[in-house]
């Protein structure tokens, strides 16, 4: 239980940091802390393979992508909006209601944990177990996710590429116009 | 072992913190980070209930973990496309403030 409390404290501190930090880089690093703590939480929940995947895919690949984009766009932190002053209190109230509702429901509707032998049969959610499920029962979902990832990559590349092409054309047009103005008048 | 409701409550708290971020931040990239936080809170809840389902047999529990694996892959695709869109918007407008993008809506 003490371990859980420490993990929960790290998770919540990291999550508050994501929302509260003004600079996007700080918020992203705070999210990395949260994701790593979440990976440890997965280990305590007998999902070892997912913990490894969480570190490699989320804290590794996805957050690097985020940091790259933040660096590329050079986004500065900005002051909160002067208008819509009613929005933050409403957001806090909604969030409080949602959290309290889910937590209360979970505690009211609780069931006893399965016995130690049932949990031991999970073998800590090893790669073999999850892989067997993915490649037998859920092979269609697995293949579809592969197609989705491919589509996502193609979409992202074409978005970035088309942007570059438009920019190049605009620059060429501008240069041509400047040259025309120079020669004609 | 810590009972499932504690993990679900923790997931609910993380979800609500992410929700506050989505609702109050104006920079699109900060909203995106908050959405990732909400997604991970949901994942935590699914993994917690997967352990609870071990009472119904190993297959039920491993199904929950396989679902989280697929969600992770979908999140990766979502981030790639979302950040691509952000970069494309930034090229045109030199800002990711969602208030200035309000004419995008129909």
Short description:
With 185 residues, chain A is mostly helical. Helices cover 81% and strands 0% of the residues of chain A.
Describe this structure in words.
The complex is a heterodimer of chains A (185) and B (106). With 185 residues, chain A is mostly helical. Chain A is built from seven helices and no strands. The model of chain A has no long low-confidence stretch (mean pLDDT 86). With 106 residues, chain B is mainly alpha-helical. Chain B has one domain (4-94): Helix Hairpins, CATH 1.10.287.3510. Chain B has three helices and no strands. Chain B has helices at residues 4-24, 28-52, 58-93. In chain B, helix 1 packs antiparallel against helix 2 and helix 2 (28-52) runs antiparallel to helix 3. The interface between A and B is large, with 91 and 75 residues.
- What is the chains' assembly state? heterodimer
CATH class of chain B: Mainly Alpha
Could you give the count of β-strands of chain A? 0
The helix/strand class of chain A is: mainly alpha
The percent range for strand residues of chain B is: under 5%
Q: Which segments of chain B are poorly predicted (pLDDT under 50) over 5 or more consecutive residues?
A: none
Any idea what the CATH architecture of chain B is?
Orthogonal Bundle
Strand content of chain A: under 5%
Mean pLDDT of chain B: 88
Features:
heterodimer, A: 185 residues, mainly alpha, Four Helix Bundle (Hemerythrin (Met), subunit A), 7 helices, extended, B: mainly alpha, Helix Hairpins, 3 helices, 77% helix, 0% strand
Break the fold down into its secondary structure elements and pairings:
The complex is a heterodimer of chains A (185) and B (106).
Chain A: H1 2-20, H2 24-44, H3 48-73, H4 87-108, H5 116-120, H6 127-136, H7 139-184
Helix pairs in contact in A: 1-2, 2-3, 6-7
Chain B: H1 4-24, H2 28-52, H3 58-93
Helix pairs in contact in B: 1-2, 2-3
